[in-house]
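As a warm-up, study this chain.
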Amino acid sequence: MDTPSPSLIAVIRNINRFSDWLGRFVSWFVLAIVLITFTVVVMRYAFNTGSVFMQESISYFHNYVIMLGMGYTLLKGAHVRVDIFYRPASAKKKAWVNLLGFLFLLLPTCVFIFYIAWEYVAASWEILEGSQEAGGVDARYLFKSTILLMPVLMIIQGIAESLKAILIIKGYEQHVLALDVTEEEHGL
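Now compare it with the structure written out below.
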């Protein structure tokens, strides 16, 4: 049996590596959320003081984990599915579901989100929107920018998933299995 194009494999592998790296990077923000939340609670109840900046930063980090981690979640196959139909399906049927799901659900939804959010985010950047609270995080425009980054990251990973689905449909399932990002690549 012939093999798929090495450049196609390289594209998929590089997208997967990027999504994996970004997901692992933003996962550290969860630790920041825990530590900042703990500090806010101690400050409030032990010292009767607070920090708007710290309270808002919890929301910022939470936002970054969710919005920037969606491509990673797609890479790992962890988005919600109707598993009673998907799980028992053959690899080719799953590939068709993934390909059609990207083309008719994920791609149009992400394009729509990007389109409707563009002016909203651009307006925030235009005025370098900051916090509505005194002492808050003066970078709300960065917070809102993730509304545009999320669909872009999802489309990029969706392209890789679609290319993998096409390879499976064409009978290259073993090549796709070899594309999984492994913990060895990260020295874990």
